[in-house]
Amino acid sequence: MNRFDYLRPASVAEAISAGRKPGSAYLAAGTNLLDLMKGGVARPALLIDITRLPGLDGIEVLPNGGMRVGALVRNSDLAYHPVFSKRHPAVAEALLSGASAQLRNAATVAGNLLQRTRCAYFYDTASACNKREPGAGCDARDGENHLHAVLGWSPECIATHPSDFCVPLVALDASVEIEGPTGSRVVPLDSFHRLPGSEPQLETVLSPGELVVALHLPASAAGYAAHSRYLKVRERTSYAFAVVSAAASLRLEGGVVSEARLALGGVALKPWRARAAEQVLAGRACDEAAFAEAAEVALADAKPSGDNAFKIELARRILVRALGLAAAGTPDRMPALPGSVFAQPEGLALHA
Amino acid sequence: MPETAPVHIRQGSSIGQPLTRREALLKVTGRARYAADNHPPGMLYAVVAASSIARGRVASLDVTAAKSHPGVAEVMTPANAPKLAQDPDEKANPFTFRLDLLQNDRVRYANQAIAVVIAETLEAATEGALLLRPTYETEPAHVVFASATPFVPPSVGVGDQPKASRGDVESGLTGAEKRVDATYETAAQYHNAMEPHAIVAQWDGDRLVIDTPSQGMAMAQSRIAGLFGIDQADIHIRSPFLGGGFGSKGLISGPQVLGIMAARLVNRPVKLVLRREQMYGPVGHRAATRQSFRIGAKADGTLTALDHHTVTASSSFDDFFEPSGGVSHTLYATPALSTTYEAVRLDMGTPLFMRAPGEASGSVALEGAIDEMAESCGLDPLEFRLKNYAEVEPLTGKPFSSKALRDCYVQGAKRFGWASRPLAPRSMRDPAGLLVGWGMGTATFPALMFQAEARAELRADGTGTVDIGAHDMGQGAWTALAQIAADGVGLPLDRITFNMGTSDLPNAGIAGGSAHTATAGSAIHNAGASVIAALAALATNDERSPLFGAGNTGVLARDGRLMRRDDESRGESYSDILNRAGRHSVEGKGQAAPNPGTQQSYAMHAHGAVFAEVKVDPTLGQIRVTRLVGAFAAGRVINPRMVESQYYGGMIWGISFALHEQAITDARSGRITNANLAEYHVPVNADVPSVEAILVDEHDPHVNALGIKGVGEIGVTGTAGAIANAVWHATGHRARKTPITLDTLIR
C-alpha cells in the first residue's frame, strides 16, 4: 500500500479539520478501508484514526423517545444491546446476518453505512470503473453482473450497496447525524446514499471533512417492534452478501395493517425504501394477496442491469415472505441463523 | 528371516489407536513454525507483480518508480532475472510442468508473475509492485470454455489413455429399454489452502536452504537443481507443516522458484508469500468440465452400456487434463463401457492436481447420471446401485483386491435411515415447509503406491529413531506415520524419535494420490523390519542370548523386546542385546514401491457410500445440506481419529463442490472476478450442520504389507453427487451444473 500519514485526533473538531484535506480518509475499524488500501483501490494520503474520539460509542434513548447510536458503536455491541434489540429487532437481526462474528465485533455503525460496494470491477484496479475513476467506463455492464442492481442503476454504474444493517434502518426512517466544518446536520438515511446517476463516484451526501457521529432512530420506529423481520437470501448459509434481502415492519390493528415499512437490500446502490408498496398495504388485511400486490408495486420499476433478471422475481418473493414473517410476529428470541430462510423454528410455517 | 509380528495381531500396538495430533499443542499455541514464520537475519520481502492481462507481452514496467520508493531494494524483471540453467518450459517428463520465471516478457494468463519487487518491508515491496504500472501489448485471450475448439488430448491425468472401452457400447445402447442422455458441467475451482504458497530462501554460495510448504520435497529438490544447475544434495528444504496443500503444493510452483531467484539476485535471504488473489493462476486449479453420458439399461434396471465423454480445459502452453472418466471404469457393472475425452486450450494458468483430480468432477457427474437412470427405471437409487454392483472392475475385468462397498451401502443407509425414503421427488417437507430431499452417491478412489525410503535406528538405551522425509499437510502424518514407526521398531510411541518434514531425510516421495500413509508407512514398516532383523541377527547368533538359535523359528519384536515366535517367554530387551554385543546402536533401511504383480492381478480401490439430506426453500431457492452420512472402506485404519477427519474434510469439500465453489472469469479480460475468500465461496460452519463418517472394516491382503488404501481424497467423491441428487429429490429439478445455485431453482 501507499505510504500515508496517520493522525489520531483528540477531538471531533480536530478530526474534521484534518478531514477537509484532499486525500484524507477517516479510519474506524478498517474492515473495508484496509482491504481497499491493500488492493490499491483506496490510496489515502492521510488516515485519520477516529477510534479514540470520545463520546462516539454511546447507545441512548433520547428524551423524545428516539434512540441515538454513536458512530463508533461496534455492530455486535449494537445487535446485542438489550434496549436497542428489543425496540428494533429487525435491525439487530440484519446486523447479525451480516459478515462474520469477527467482523461484526470490529466493524462500526458508521463504517457499515459507509462501506463501499463489493462490485468486483470496483475492486479490480485493472478494470474500468466510473466509481473508482470517473469517466473510465463500467466493465460490469457487459461483465459478470449476476448480482448487480435491478433498481436505481444508471448506465454509468450498476453496483449495489452491500449493507444489511441499512435495510431495516432505511425502512424505519433512521437518520444520520453529521458533524462538519460548518456545523452539524441530520440527514435522513434514505437521502444519505446517492444513486449512481452520471456521477457514481459520489456515494453519499457527505462533503469533505464531514464526519458521521451518530445514527438516530425515531420514537415511531419502536412501534413496529412486535412485527419486524429481516430476511436475507444468500449463496451460503452465513458470511455472504445478500443476493437480495428485505426488511418488513408492520403495525397491526386487529389483523389489519395500519402502517407498513418496507425496504430491499442488494438491489440498488442504496438501501431501497419501497414507499409505494407500503401504501398498498396500509389498511389491508394481512394476507398473501396484499403482500403480493405490495411486492409487485415495490418492483414495478425494476429492470435487469445484466444477467440478473432473476433478482427481480426473487425480490418480490422475498418481500412477500418477509411480510409474512413480520405479520406472524417478531420471535421472542433471536433465531440461531438471523435473517436466514433456515431460521424458522420447527413448526412455524413459512407462509403467513 | 526374523520378522515383526503381523501388525493386526500385535499387542501393545500404536497402530489403530485414535491418537490426537502429536503437534496439536504447537499448532493451537501458534508455535508450529510454518514457512512464512521464518525470518532469518537480513531477510528482505519479495512481492510478485502479477499480470492483469491473459495473453500478450509486457511492453513496459516503471522500474524507476518502483525502485525509487523508499525501502525498495531491487526489482526483478526479465531484464535482470538470474538466468536459469534450464529452460523452465522444457518438459523432462509429463510430471514436469512449465513455469513462468521471468525469462521473457510473454504473458500466458492473468495473475502470471511479470516482476518481483524486493524491499526491506512487505509494505514497501507491495507498493513498489503497484508503482510498476505495467503496459502491455495485449492479444485477444480465449478464456471461455464453450467457444474454444476441442481436440483429443494425448493423455489425461498422469499418463492415462484418453480413450478406454470394453464391450460394444453402441449395441448396448441400441438394445437398451431405458436411456439416459445427459450432460453435466462442473466449474473451475481453485485450491484455497489457508496457507498461501510461501518461501523463505537463503543462498550460501551454491548451497540453498528454503523454508517452503511442499507435498513432495524430493521432487522439488530435483526441479530446483535442474533450474539452477546445482547439486540436488545442496538444496535443503524444510517443510515441517503445511497449512493445507490439496495438490497445489505437490510440485514446486513458479512463485516459489521466483523467491529463490530473488534471493540469488539480491544475495540476501528473501521471503515471498503469494497474496490470496495471486493463488488464482500460477499454482494450479481444477479445470472446468463438461461431461456427456449415454447410458442404457434394461427395464429391470440392469445396465447395458455406459458412455462417458469428458470435455475439459488445459492452459495454452501446457498439458494437464482432468481425468473425469476414471470413475466410470470402476464403479458400475456394465457389459459395455467407453470413456473418451476432448479438451480445449484457454489462456489461463495450467490446471493441476486438486483433491481427487478427475474422481471428484467425474463422480458428481456420474452419480447424477446414474441417479437419472434409477429414476427412469423407477428404482430406489440404492437398489439401482446394488443391482449394478461391480463384482469385478468393469473396464479391466480384474478382481478387486478387496471391496467392502456393499457393507458401506448397508451401514450408511442404516445410519441415515434411507429405507424410509419416498421414491418420488418433492414429497418431503419439514415442519416449517422447507422442501426436504435425500440423495446418495458412491465414493471411490484408487489405492495407489509410490516410492519411498526410510531409515530406522535402535539404540542401547532402549530408544529408537525413525527418519523419513514425509509431509504433513494437516492430514496427520506426524501422528499416523509415527504410529507405524513405533510398531515397526517394536517400541512404544514415547520411546521413539520420529523425524520428518525436511529434505535431508530419506525420500518419502509425494504426499498425494491418497498414497502417503501407504507409501511412507510401508517404507517405515520395512525399515523397522530391517532394523529388527539386524538386531535379531545379533541375538540369534550369540550363544549367550536366550534367543540363540531362534533364527529358524523367527523372533517377534514388541515393547522393546525380542522374543521367540514359538515361545514368547524366551526373549530379552533390545538394550541387553546391544550392550552384550558392545553396540551403541543398530540401523536398518526400508523401501516402498508399487508391486507390479499385484497391480497386474488386481483392481485396487477404496470405496464408500454417502447419503445426504438437503433442505431447499420452495420459493426462494436457497439450499442447505442438513445431514451427511458417509461410510467408507479403505483398508487398514492407522488412526481412526485422523481418518475420520479426512473423511469429514472430504465430505465438506463435497458440499463445496455441489453448492459453492466456482471461479468466475471475466470473458473479456480473462481475470477471475472472485479471487478472494469472501466471494469464492467455500462452506462455512453454518453450511455444515451434521457430518458423520463410518469407518467400515476392510482387510486387504494385496495393496501393501500394511493393508492401507488411503483416505485423503475419497470423501470428496460421492458426496457432491449425493447432494445434487438430494436437491433433485427435494425439488424435482435435476441440477446438471455445479455448483447448484439458488437462481436455477427459482426460475
Describe this structure in words.
The complex is a heterodimer of chains A (352) and B (747). Chain A is α+β, with helices and mostly antiparallel strands. In chain A, 28% of the residues lie in helices and 18% in strands. Chain A is built from 13 helices and twelve strands. Chain A has helices at 12-19, 33-38, 75-79, 82-87, 89-97, 101-106, 109-114, 120-123, 166-171, 189-192, 275-281, 288-298, 310-328, and strands spanning 5-7, 24-27, 46-49, 59-61, 67-70, 175-180, 183-188, 211-217, 228-233, 244-253, 256-265, 272-273. In chain A, the strands form three sheets. Chain A has a five-stranded antiparallel beta sheet with strand order 4-5-8-6-7. In chain A, strands 9-10-11-12 form a four-stranded antiparallel beta sheet. Chain B has 747 residues and is α+β, with helices and mostly antiparallel strands. Chain B folds into three domains: 38-140 and 194-244 and 249-279, Aldehyde oxidase/xanthine dehydrogenase, a/b hammerhead (Aldehyde Oxidoreductase, domain 3); 289-448 and 600-746, 2-Layer Sandwich (Aldehyde Oxidoreductase, domain 4), CATH 3.30.365.10; 451-593, Aldehyde Oxidoreductase, domain 4 (2-Layer Sandwich), CATH 3.30.365.10. Chain B has a seven-stranded mixed beta sheet with strand order 3-5-1-12-9-10-11, sandwiched between helices. Chain B has a six-stranded mixed beta sheet with strand order 7-15-14-13-8-28. A five-stranded mixed beta sheet of chain B has the order 16-17-25-26-27, with helices on both faces. The longest helix of chain B has 25 residues, at 516-540. Chain B starts with 23 loop residues before the first helix and ends with a helix. Chain A: This is Xanthine dehydrogenase family protein subunit M. Chain A: Residues 1-222 form the FAD-binding PCMH-type domain. Chain A: It comes from Lichenifustis flavocetrariae.
